[in-house]
TrEMBL record:
Protein name in UniProt: Serine--pyruvate aminotransferase
Transferase among keywords: yes
Pfam families for this protein: Aminotran_5
Matching Gene3D superfamilies: Aspartate Aminotransferase, domain 1 (3.90.1150.10), Type I PLP-dependent aspartate aminotransferase-like (Major domain) (3.40.640.10)
Key words of the record: Aminotransferase, Pyridoxal phosphate, Pyruvate, Transferase
Species this protein is from: Serinibacter arcticus
Needed cofactors: pyridoxal 5'-phosphate
Binding site for substrate: 364
Domain (Aminotransferase class V) ranges: 45-351
Protein family: Belongs to the class-V pyridoxal-phosphate-dependent aminotransferase family.
Length: 412
């Protein structure tokens, strides 16, 4: 028998201020909700909490769709559920890519055995709706899969006109709003979204591990009719029709039946994550959806003014930047990773590194969810200034804090 002699102590994380591109600090109420008592899967309290959560998330998505649920898992569980349920092998999917998460959508669509077509724009830019329409006309896809906010570049793709374009061409429209939802405008119904998914660990101010999903009636009908066709094909034993990956766990039809009035057994809803998601959406309802978006806009504006006042150069097309994250170029001579580590060890502040073409070139600084607050913004700027000076970059003393504080005072 082996005995574990070196039993670790109870979990006791250090104090951190998470100012990267996500995850971020959860709202205190979300952490409290997660420690609430558990109940059974079909306890009336649980089913009522699920129904409340659906109503709260319709408010977050700005949608009246019946199909408004949580997919258990991190954001990419929601992405996979949406894509696997909306495309079939051989169907064409168009993915406009403006950062790392566009590549993820393309990869997931490829795993769904779709015929994937991509268009790309330079990192730091977004697509004009006309460029997307041109590609739709050329590719004639079943589905357009488009990221709204890509944290890898900090860009926010305008979606307002895309739904109408998709409708005109008979294309389903899916968006990954993980990084942007709750901190930037999102109008699922008014913008003609057929499906959208998110995660909690960005502007929603919760931990990762639950993926809100909303789906239009039209898209649900597509999911349902395909399930009917597949069931028919399976009965006849057609080997081709079943020769592809079909997830049970991420089957949107089954997830909807579980959340819907029939409450058909599927997985066991992740109870503590449901409590967390419910609380994230409740915070937004209490404060007001538009007020929360405005709080993110103000924090983002203050951080932008602050980093500029420190003499840093902002990456990308600032007019299309997400409110909740900014990428700054690492000044020449400053060791990016060493400076980031100094922020963490000396100040307990985490900021983000970057991927792909931006690796080693920019830091990404987030202001989202609970941390879209003045004190979090100015504390980060003060620490950043100190670290920049330590590594020989002559950031003006107090400049960042003053510019951010001025932004807040100007808005008061
Ligand atoms: C952060 C982010 C994700 C994260 O996915 P996880 O599975 O929760 O790690 C997905 N999409 C976008 C656009 C993101 O910014």
């Amino acid at each position: 028998m082996t005995v574990l002699t070196d039993v670790p102590g109870p979990i006791d994380p250090p104090h951190r201020l998470l100012m990267g591109p996500g995850p971020v600090d959860a709202y205190p109420g979300v952490l409290r909700a997660m420690s609430a008592r558990l109940v059974g899967q079909y306890d009336p309290f649980m089913t009522e909490a699920m129904t409340q959560t659906q109503a709260l998330f319709r408010n977050v998505w700005s949608s009246t769709a019946d199909a408004c649920v949580l997919v258990d898992g991190t954001s990419r569980a929601g992405i996979e559920a949406a894509v696997l349920s909306l495309v079939r092998p051989g169907e064409r999917v168009l993915v406009p890519i403006f950062g790392r998460f566009g590549h993820l959508l393309a990869e997931i669509a490829e795993r769904a055995m779709a015929e994937v077509h991509t268009i790309e724009t330079a990192w730091g830019q977004v697509f004009a709706p006309s460029a997307i329409e041109e590609a739709i006309t050329r590719v004639r896809p079943t589905l357009l899969a488009l990221v709204q906010g890509d944290t890898s570049t900090t860009m926010l793709q305008p979606l307002e006109e895309i739904g109408e374009i998709c409708r005109r061409h008979g294309v389903l429209f899916y968006s990954d709003a993980t990084a942007s939802l709750g901190g930037n405008p999102f109008e699922a119904d008014a913008w003609g979204l057929d499906a959208a998914t998110a995660g909690l660990q960005k502007c929603l101010g919760g931990p990762s591990g639950s993926s809100p999903l909303v789906m239009s009636d039209r898209a649900v009908e597509v999911v349902r009719s395909r399930a009917r066709i597949e069931a028919g094909i399976r009965e006849e034993g057609d080997p081709v029709a079943v020769d592809f990956i079909r997830s049970n766990y991420l089957d949107v039809g089954m997830i909807l039946d579980y959340w819907g009035p029939r409450r058909l057994n599927h997985h066991t809803e992740a109870t503590s994550m449901l409590y967390a998601a419910r609380e994230c959406a409740r915070v937004i309802a209490l404060e007001g959806r538009d007020a929360v978006i405005a709080r993110h806009a103000l924090a983002g504006e203050a951080m932008l003014a602050g980093v500029r006042a420190l003499g840093l150069t902002v990456f990308g097309d600032v007019a299309h930047k997400m409110s909740n994250v900014v990428a700054v170029e690492i000044p020449d001579g400053v060791p990016g990773d060493v400076a980031r580590a100094a922020l963490l060890t000396d100040f307990g502040i985490e900021i983000g590194t970057s991927f792909g073409p931006l690796h080693g070139r920019v830091w990404r600084i987030g202001t989202m969810g609970y941390n879209a607050r003045q004190d979090a913004v100015v504390t980060t700027l003060a620490a950043l200034e100190q670290v920049l000076r330590r590594f020989g970059f002559a950031a003006p003393a107090g400049g960042g804090v003053e510019a951010a504080t001025d932004t807040y005072r100007g808005a008061a």
